[in-house]
Amino acid sequence: MIVDRQGRRFRNLRISLTSACNYACTYCVPDGKRLVAAQDELSADAMIQAVAYLIEAAGIERLRITGGEPLVSPKLEALLRGVSQLGLDDISLTSNGQLLTRKLPLLLETGIRRLNISLDTLDPEAFRRIARGGDLFSVLEGLDQARAAGLKIKLNMVPLRGQNLDQVLPLLDYCLERGFELRFIELMRMGHLARAGQNFQQQFVGLPELLALIGERYEYAQADAPVDATALRYKIAGRGYFGVIANESVPFCRSCSRLRLSSTGWLHGCLSSSNRHYVGDLLDKPRHQALPALQGLLVKALGDKQELAFAGGTTIMKIIGG
Ligand code: SAM
Question: Residue of the nearest CA to atom 19 in ligand 1?
Answer without folding.
Answer: 28
